[in-house]
Amino acid sequence: MATIDVLRSLTPEVSGILKKGGYFGGVAKDLRHDTTTTRKLKAAIEAKNHRLLEDMWSNNPDMLSSLPQFQTCKENLNKTDLDRIQKEIRKKPKDQRTFERRIDRSYLTAPSRLERIERSEGHVSGLVKEQRKARKEKFKFKIWRNDANPCDMCKALEGQKRKINEPYSNGSYVAHAHPQCKCFDEYI
Ligand SMILES: [Zn+2]
Ligand SMILES: [Zn+2]
Fold first, then answer.
1. What is the value of pTM for the model shown?
2. Does the pLDDT of residue 4 top 90, yes or no?
3. Are 82 and 37 a contacting pair, CB within 8 Å?
């Protein structure tokens, strides 16, 4: 899967940056106080995140704005990733290969990290398509509707009415609350 490959290519990049910063080979260094290395790591992670999101949704702006997860992804991955790297780097032994192995097995490049979002893609793209059609047909409002057996989160959203171009209270532009959500929009 292309998205996962983007993530995988982060490991050698991260460890290369750390190696140049002198993190491997026994010298104890604290990443928090090394602004140059931290800045380089941030830039690398941001570039990967950008490519990742482009790959995942092929720059579909409708889709992106419809996914509350996209915002979460955009704002949090960078900080979360740096926190993970800092945590890993404090562990011993501090050699490059061990570090890379740990990172490979960690959340940083784990497929599970984006599976949640990818699983939502089908549901969201269907809803986005319907919404585009509803706009063309001049519908003015949308109402959040539950499928059979909704969870508590979805139940709380049932019946919420919004103007067609405004987000629901969960930030989503279509009736999508979580992975495997089966809610849908009613247009009036
Ligand atoms: Zn639900
Ligand atoms: Zn739902």
1. 0.60
2. no
3. no
Q: Is the pLDDT of residue 114 over 70?
A: no
Query: How many angstroms separate the CA atoms of 129 and 139, rounded?
Result: 14
pLDDT of residue 170: 85
Q: For residue 145, which ligand has an atom nearest its CA?
A: 2
- Name residues with Cβ closer than 5 Å to ligand 2, which is an ion: 154, 177, 181, 183
Contact at 8 Å (CB) between 177 and 147?
no
Altogether, the residues listed in the chain come to a count of 188
